[in-house]
Input
Amino acid sequence: MSAPLTDAALDQLFLTARTYNAWLPKEVTDEQVRRIYDLAKMGPTSANMSPMRLRFIKSPDAKARLKPFLSEGNAEKTMAAPVTAIVATDFDFYEHLPKLFPHADARSWFAGKPEAIKEHGARNGTLQGAYLIMAARSLGLDCGPMTGFDFAGVDAEFFAGTQIKANFLVNIGYGDPGTNMFGRLPRFEFDEVAEIL
Output
């Protein structure tokens, strides 16, 4: 049986974790980036379809390619982040199901069915993006997810000739706690949004 996480671990993942907009000048290594993925890939997806695709923007050249597509409010903080993950979804995910879900003909559930492809790809790709954030936090890193960018421009620059479409960006690094941050915004209480039936 698994044991509950410690309060400190829950703080790191959920309770005191924050979205950061400023970053300490501390490197995120390639090994850390690979470890983030190796954790995130283990989260569940429908029929193990794993539609998330990633571009980890780290080098000055890659940052220069991304910068023109960022909204004005997101450009500076993204250029300062050690790494920016472009979290995208491969809408040809079903072509890989013979490998990822070999015990059934899962490819046939989606081939030629654009609505099913769109629905399942978007849902599961977004799930995996959330796993990515939690994986980074579990390794002691901070995140700044955002959607303020030119989706079509990013797709053309980083995913040309594919069915891969950008979903959101996640800046990853060591957040600067000395910067001005908003106070924690309200959350709904259980009884406002949930029922036990």
User: Anything to note?
Assistant: The radius of gyration is 18 Å.
